[in-house]
Design a protein that fits this description.
single chain, about 100 residues, 3 helices, mainly alpha
């Protein structure tokens, strides 16, 4: 039982580390694309590790199945939202360049 507890702690600490790295990337990166890259990659990995640790801690039950569904939802929506943000930022950047060129 102690080995499982150590693995759970490692998963939770690793997930927390990835969240922390994502926050540092958000604060330190220069533009929207690099900030988005840092946060979405780290948040997806951090959530995956933390939820995996919670599933192991809870044991395989109905609650862990719900946590797994939430994890799948995060894995699907986080990259999709990042793509939508990047596409909008790129379009706005193109539009501002066209306005500057016409002046």
């Amino acid at each position: 039982m102690i080995v499982v507890d150590i693995i759970i702690i490692l998963f939770l600490l690793s997930g927390t580390f990835f969240f922390f790295v994502g926050v540092v990337g958000l604060l330190r990166m220069p533009n929207v694309f690099t900030r988005m890259h840092a946060t979405t990659k780290c948040d997806t990995m951090g959530a995956g590790l933390i939820f995996a640790g919670l599933i192991m801690w809870q044991g395989f039950s109905f609650i862990s199945a719900n946590i797994l569904l939430i994890l799948i939802f995060v894995w699907l929506t986080n990259p999709t939202a990042a793509h939508a943000i990047a596409k909008t930022a790129y379009k706005r950047m193109e539009d501002s360049l066209e306005i500057e060129d016409s002046e």
